[in-house]
## 1
Amino acid sequence: MKLITVVGARPQFVKAAVVSRAISEKNLKSKSKIDEIIVHTGQHYDPRMSQQFFDELDIPAPKYNLGINKGNHGKMTGRMLEQLERVYLEEKPDQVMVYGDTNSTLAGALAATKLHIDVAHVEAGLRSFNRSMPEEINRVLTDKVSTRLYCPTQNAVQNLRAEGIENGVFLTGDIMFDSFQYYRSQLENDANTLVSHLDYKYDDFVLATCHRAENTDNKGKLEEVFKGLAAIAENSRVVIPLHPRTMQQLSEYGLSHYLDELTVMSPVSYKKMLTLLLNCSVVITDSGGLQKEAYFANKKCITLRNETEWVETLVHGNNQLVPTDSQLILAAFLNHDAELVWPALYGDGNAGLLIAETLED
């Protein structure tokens, strides 16, 4: 079977690494083989957010790099549709696999569907129920045209059922948990290396990220986020690997002075991010993926949004939704409860193998 995997953003590189590794393992044990071809749309083009992930996670090199980035959502998605259709016609895959909820996800799925190629969607069924988020539109539409829907949680399965989607649905667990388990044992052996090098004390810093358009494209919201982080930094070190686009927006809005109070890093590799996560005390983020990884690492998370796709993390207070208000952000940090329980929510770490084994069913 010939499979085309479409990726474009850094979280997708991590997820694809898990499934590609599982496909390789399956191919060694099975008479039937899956021939995987990776297509990189180019959506994340900065080497710090793209190439270093392929190198570090030992992902097979993309056969195609379409180099499509910048521009608004419609322009980017349209260009991807055009180029992916060309690749599909040339390669004639039996199936196309897409991940998550980016423009690359939607373009990969739509281009395949119009050519009557089966679509497998990893991380299907997630819903924030906020249609103002481009990610929500992408994930809903991708699920509608997919023939295999790999769900990370029971909540995701229920969301699909509520929309009338029941055929081809698999509850796999979360492939990001696979990745976390795979690398955690390696990192714990020298978990303090990066932290010690940067003169951080174990469990004595806050790990923050901010990159979602709903926060970065609104000057008022962006200022509230960084004003809140600066207030926290008066008593606790705040470490923030800063997304290039967020840095650009801070500069354009005249808000760069807030960075003086923070420990700012360039975007870090996946393994370095996990090392920071394993050593921090609290996570403050607007990222969907980091919310989950904080849960995997048993770290309290403060999410700078009004909703989350990962609603199960809210039940026991492990994750807290906080609007973009500096005082509320500070209050959430000061009042966070360290005594929390961490039920197993995301499977047993074998999602990648289950996906690989069911691709040919």
## 2
Amino acid sequence: MSVLSYAEFEFRAIRPEEADEAVRIEHICFPPHEACSEKSMKERIGRAPELFLVAEERSTGRIAGFLNGVATKEKVFRDEFFTDITLHDPEGTSVMLLGLDVLPEYRNRGLAREIVRQYESREKANGRERLVLTCLDEKVPMYLKFGFKDLGIANSSWGGEIWHEMEISI
């Protein structure tokens, strides 16, 4: 597969009418026990659409992937961020990343890295200081390449899995 040209994509906040598509993509990208519920995804989009970054393919108008999170003044990731949108604090200096979704046909071509890079740049401009995420063992090397630091095993049992907590200062 070839590396994608990022000029092929528009990187932007999600639109309210794209909520069903975001739910569909989430359920393609994550197994059922890890995927965000339709209710939680729609609540996130309704309350914090500015913390979604969508990669839309210009030629088709198709969403190829997205990254989303919630802002907080808290320093440690906790599972409640996945399900309780009231924890979102627009004044927060940390963003707890809740999902990096890239459709299978766009993977392994640099799009995930570009979404993270664009998100990081946007959130730095918005006054944020750090991005925090949790990931499974097999994703740690990818996020290290993106510039994240592995903080070790997270205080998370989301989906019955063991997660690493990772952060990047921006």
## 3
Amino acid sequence: MRRIAIYGKGGIGKSTTSANVTAAMTEMGLKVMQIGCDPKSDSTRLLLRGERCPTVLETLRDNGSVDLDDVVIEGTGGCLCVECGGPKPGTGCAGRGIIAAFETLERLGAVDRYRPDVIIYDVLGDVVCGGFAMPIRNGYANDVFIVTSGEMMALYAANNIAQAVGNFAGDGYARLGGIIQNSRNVEDEDALVDKACGEIGTSVIHRIPRDPAVQRCEDRMTTVIDGEPDSSQAAQYRLLAKKLLDLSEDRSGGMRGQ
């Protein structure tokens, strides 16, 4: 089983990238579980055709307990969708919410029940606090990939995320697999991202071109893989999905792996 964390600054396109990767891997015949780790709880919306996925934390608050059937929802192609959720606006800590959601999924034996081939953690990377660093530091993910563009704040966030991965690397936790460039047509964008990679000590594994197909499909609440499967952009996401599989470790084990 491969356990991959995809990090990036909010608004950089990491959830769109994650969803299209999940759809592409599902198309390959793999069972993929995507876990959204953002209090906005919108990671899986394209995989559910715009339907809202009930979150682990919301279900806990409302019911006092959680069953896997309540929070693991089947998406397009048979992928499995989970949203951790977060506290009510203005109350609580989103990072602690992710910790609680992960512990709940582990206690309920989500991986043992569904036995996915791949778990994709889609993680907000603006602030890499203890909760948002959970996939890195607690052995849930094996490999971390960072989505960025050539924009200054996206690169700044990428550097912070890379530092967080490095801080825990010595403990045998997740390793940095590389950078995914989600292009925004910034002037000299490739050079800017390459320069940042040199400073971070990693490389670009794939450059996703900017393409209006992404927005067209999002307007219809679908991935490009499902909405425009024959497009050049769909081919880019399929290529990225294959690279992620090739670059990530295949380990047995549960949520954290053994």
